[in-house]
Design brief:
heterodimer; A: alpha/beta; Rossmann fold; 10 helices; about 40% helix; about 15% strand; B: alpha/beta; 2 domains; 8-stranded mixed sheet; 5-stranded mixed sheet; 13 helices
Chain lengths: ~300, ~375
Amino acid sequence: MSIRKSRNYFSPDYMNQQKEKDKSYGLHPLDGYLKKDRIPHIWCPGCGLGVVLSSFLRALDHSGIPKEKTAVVSGIGCTGRVAGYLNMDSFHLTHGRAIPFATGLKVGNPDMVTTVFSGDGDLFAIGGNHFIHAARRNVDFNVICVNNFNFGMTGGQAGPTTPTEATTTTTPFGGFEHPFNLPAVAAGSGAVYVARWTAYHVEALIRSLEEALNKKGFCFVEVLTPCPTGYGRRTGQKTGKEAMKYYKENSRIEHGADPTEVSLDQDEIIVGKFVDREAPTYQERRGEIFQAIRKKKGVE
Amino acid sequence: MKPDTYFIDGNTACAEGAIAAGCTFFASYPITPATEILETMAKRFPEIHGSYLQMEDELASIAAVIGASWAGRKAMTATSGPGFSLMMENYGFALMTETPCVIVNVMRGGPSTGLPTMVAQGDVMQTRWGTHGDVGVVVYCPGSPQEMFDMTVEAFNTAERYRLPVVLLSDAVVAHMTEKVVIPPKEELDIVNRKKPKNSPEEYLPYCPDEDLVPPMACAGEGYGVHVTGLTHDERGYPSVDEKTQTFLVTRLINKIRKNSDDILKYEEYKVDDAEIIIVAYGSVSRSAREAVDMARAEGIKVGLLRPITLWPFPEDRIYELAAKGVKAFLVAEINFGQIVYEVQRCTDGHCPTYLAPRMGGSIHTPEELVERLYGINEGKEGSN
């Protein structure tokens, strides 16, 4: 499946259609998706979370999935606060437990298009075990990982994605641990869709998220985002702009790249869609087996 | 299982009770001595269109159960002490977010890995205070396979009526004991379902309680756009850090149970009316205690048994009443070094002494050892606890 297949976003028809939609919203086309009385948000100037959130909402809007059938689940941390700003079924879980909660929610109500929206620390430090098992089960939901390379909410501590040499408040002399290469973790655990973008690659990110929303199975999208307050100021990217400039100058799009070869400890950041495969989901497999059992036992 | 009389163990009865109560979601992680509940659910769920998930650990099990509850399902998990310890985090989350669900804890010997295959009652206070913060909880403590069935149904009903995670605190003896269990026909079972909002999504305040202090619950996909957070939240469900919101919310969560405790409270009395000494025992130990009452009475000692079926709410008023009425002493028999004994002592308010019959080693008290203690108390040879 090609990443650009779904729609011509710049066709006059499509643009008119979107304009009509915008009129019904009011001030901003995405206003309807947000709890406006919860704005302003808590995120710092220069943070990339607004970019990722608006990209997600735009993807959701493009997908045509009604927001009544959309659920967003977050864990703890700066990204964890996403759920609280959304005008839809949204859940702000305990630290690391967004994925198992989403598993229960999705299996409990298969009609809900469910997205886990959380940070690298929440998903891969305290919640790492849940991530690999949800991918293995191929439960039908999306995971958006906002990777800002540190624990931002608590003030910039090292996490499972912090580059080894980076200075943080808990690695004042530089770190000693090797970071996760998240696309490889996801692909190796069984995710059917794996992509990585940065907060700079907005258009591609929107498309990737729309594709993930429409795809059955466990989909994973990593988004590298600036965190000037927690991370950048100690690692040479003092503003969001500097980080964005870095992403712009150092990223290379390589669709279909081997996920094991896209780790971030090389000179360039490899972004793109790495995995897009078909596999029966947890619900599909179970449905088949359960139906056969019911037939055998003669129960409806 | 069709309504009938069966000869089954407590864990199977618990699983059947859950199904009878309308449970269609079960997530769990294998652990002795609770595993039979998982196995029964796995076998039975295809027939009832249920969802059984074997999760990666107990942290995930309870998170999935909470997720399913917000998807509108009646959901349950089952575990033992080590898994229950892991669940404390989301037990608190479910209490805070008022998520109806049932947690079965089949107690085994602790601390830590302890005695995996043997009985204990060491998790009693953990069910009350195990999660951080101030909470009001409901805990059922069944004393037989039949009660494993009945109290599982009851636990679901209470969870749905008052919107909270309810603990079914079983133990290895009751769970693995095989006895007669009557599964009544559906129409004889009183099944409660959670209150749904009557107003429109625009008017709906997800945490605005009715008079019974319980807010109606809209679930995911019903168009209400619910927001659920473990943060201190106001009636809209929005996070808030001000003193007023915190006081209002936590007070309500505790009063929700306290003010409805007459409705929830359950205990059984055996020969208490003329008793001078009262044994307080729960779960499997209550069976030895009952025998001890009869044995002691045959020797002329007036003994009765008070068996709390809900450990929380605790039969506080009844114990106070008995103590004030002139009962000579209470003897608390439990398979630990003393947990409920302090509750009893608190409730007697100094009117009479409270003694403890502790037990370790992975088995229940024998009636004889309890009778021995009763002799001692009766003859005034026992020092106060």
